[in-house]
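Why run this: before we spend reagent on co-expression, it is cheaper to look at a predicted model of the complex and decide which construct boundaries make sense. The entries below are exactly what would go into the expression plan.
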Amino acid sequence: GAVVSQHPSWVICKSGTSVKIECRSLDFQATTMFWYRQFPKQSLMLMATSNEGSKATYEQGVEKDKFLINHASLTLSTLTVTSAHPEDSSFYICSAVTAGGGEQYFGPGTRLTVT
Amino acid sequence: DAKTTQPTSMDCAEGRAANLPCNHSTISGNEYVYWYRQIHSQGPQYIIHGLKNNETNEMASLIITEDRKSSTLILPHATLRDTAVYYCIVRVDESGGSNYKLTFGKGTLLTVNP
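The model came back. Tokens follow.
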């Protein structure tokens, strides 16, 4: 089946630094990837839609200058949290849709802790 | 996308069938019903989806009412590993970027007890 990986699986960083999270579709090409954020005991909240070769589309209330998304190839999207603050601590999950459309496959998530 | 309503939590005995209901009374004709589940601290896992006919795969069965206003996900023989939050989502199935968006509600926490 379709596999999506994320790296790193967890990261601790200091306030003010930037952190990059990678999302890869391992055995399929993904024209569209999504980035979600999930706070403890809450549901997934969509942050942005990432389309290969074009700018990401951000959901209302998500700061595009703070959460930089790059989708440079059909198998890789990256999310960079810039100038991280403790309130950015969360579980970040990406997903990918196959080039032909259909089911959305999710990565295992990245736990970010900002101290 | 249409909204869905699910019970907050349910319990099921191991080995028994787990029936998870979902109400989607405002679903449109071109919207599919998708089910995902999320085991604690993992990414969501696709289970099944359907339009109007009942569907079955190796994981579960999906029963959609004739008026499509509600559906039930059935896990025929629940195991302890099926303990998870189950999300019912309705979504259009047209190709193109944002059409693939999934809007997650709060889901149902299914606890399978030994």
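Chain B touches chain A at residues 36, 38, 41-46, 49, 87, 93, 95-98, 100-107 (CB under 8 Å). The mean pLDDT of chain B is 92. Bring this page to Monday's planning discussion.
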